[in-house]
Amino acid sequence: MAAPAAAKRPCWPPAAAAAAEPNKRHRTADATPMDAAAGAEAERSLAHAQRRQQREHQQQQHHHHHQPLLPGLPDHLAQLCLAPLPPRLLRAVCRPWRRLLYSPSFPPFLSLYAVLDDGADGGVSFAAYDAVAGRWDELPEPPMPSPPPRLWHPSFLSRRLPLQSVAAGGRLVLVAGSTQSLSPALPRPMVFDPSAPTPRWQLGPRFPFAPRRWCAAGSARGRVFVAGGVGAGYDANDARSGAVWDPASPAAAWEPLPPMRDCRFSRDAAEAVCSRGKVCMVSLRSRGAKEGAVFDLCAGRWEDMPPGMLAGWKGSAAAASAGGAETIFVVDEERGALIAYDWSGDRWRTVAESERLKGATEMAAGGGRVCVAAEGGAKVIVVDVTTPKPPWRAGGPAAAPSTWEVAAPAGKRVVALHVLPRMTRAE
């Protein structure tokens, strides 16, 4: 049976009908005013909907970034309530608390700052270890002079050139270094403030003496302390001069120190550590014949170093508050021992002894911790020097302090350490 005519109808119009009917794609020109008005209204409705979605998204973002720290309390009062909590807890609870932890308005926790050897080219970089987050964060590059300081020289491959840095007034300060031609590299200090709203490097005032290297440098009651050293050429007056400066007051000038008694502090980079109002330093950090000097900040004069202090000073040194008093710590790199100085008895006591401390060359102290660069700067050994732990048994020796390790950033080695407030950042 033949199929019905309707079933045989093609899906496109016959040729005659197609010729008689205008192309549907060109009918817009013949659209009525009512159709044009409807199209315009649809476009306005679509644009309105898009703007509404954008406003809602912005409101959600605003709410996300401005939700209260503690519901029912203004943020400034909530910060007072949260300040005593451990930083690890604040970071783990919620995003608003984590952001608060790294904001410039919140009391900062302490971090470990390192000057790093970048490798064979002798370049240098800087990083901060955040113990709460468990990571290294790079610092911005400082505005290095030309030529910049170097850590290695082709003629002295067995000895690293020091880039001397100081932690003072909550800031990291570069004070002395050597160029590739073994000339002083820094005509003025460079200062990094980690607690600033936008952490960056700034230049301090020019030194009141010729730029130098191989000097004694340290912190004295929040101020940068520099003494001795050698400039482009040896000069006895430079080798006996010194000055102090407050990095918290960039506009302040350097204050000169009375001349040192001799010129012996110009052979090596030396740490100047402050304890009980006195700045102490030795002319040679390693074992061997050395001289010591002490500057009394209150009396404003140089003194001889106590003989017991000089005899036991056999390595890198740092000073920090421990047990309510400011204590000088030294790491004996040959013994692998961390020792602390006792002013009353003019003697050193052993705090910790470990094979891991052997060969240590750099150290820093703060917040009840002593941090020591070991294994050529490949790692940092952290020693807890807070109140000693009770003995394991009655009458026995005190338990050894807790120690742990922090690996240096990949491909780099630590050449200097400092303990400073954590770096402000957007979290």
TrEMBL record:
Coiled coil region boundaries: none
Signal sequence range: none
Organism placement in taxonomy: Eukaryota, Viridiplantae, Streptophyta, Embryophyta, Tracheophyta
Positions of the UniProt region annotated as Disordered: 1-70
Organism superkingdom: Eukaryota
Ranges of Low complexity composition bias in the record: 1-21, 30-40
Protein name: F-box domain-containing protein
PANTHER family, per the entry: F-BOX/KELCH-REPEAT PROTEIN SKIP25, OS06G0711700 PROTEIN
